[in-house]
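Quick board copy: two proteins, each given as sequence then tokens.
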Amino acid sequence: MAFGMDPEVTKYFKKILNSLFAFLIWMFINITGGIYFGLAFREHFPLIINILFYLWLALSLGLLLWYYFKIWGK
């Protein structure tokens, strides 16, 4: 036992931290692309760029949820 912590508590804590980190990275990437670079707004780019951005957003959300189910399903 490292530092008197139960191994199950350590495992659960790692799951929480991995989930939080994955969510924050996902949000950072999508907010940077959508708001900072203006990919979420129609006025800066052609419509196809906006469609591709929103497809990426939906696909990456699906991958994030799949990652969550994979981690928490164990």
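And the next:
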Amino acid sequence: MAGRRPVPEPRVKAGIWVSMALRMGNGAGRYGAVLRKGDADSGGILVVLHGKRGMSVLSQMRTADGEAAWMRATGPDPVDQAAADAYVERQTRFDPDLWVLEFESPDLLPPFEGKIV
């Protein structure tokens, strides 16, 4: 039918998604850790990537079509540890249910599949 919006993909519980991401990262040599445990069912997720030229923080989001995606919350260019920490601190004060994961990532790409917008 014309004018129908796409049905958003189902959401996976945050705790299950975190376990999957850590297994994928560890299996690919992009070792990860949980820096902050959030709500196991519906918590949002931040991913801190440690690269050769700095760091990047990815924030979980939905596109206008309801598709799961990631945004480089600290901008397109790598940032230093202080800038990444400050961003994470601001977000966790705003959202107490937020998960924070950290991965070693020389190329600042996540160890899991995900659209980056």
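Board note added afterward: The mean pLDDT is 92.
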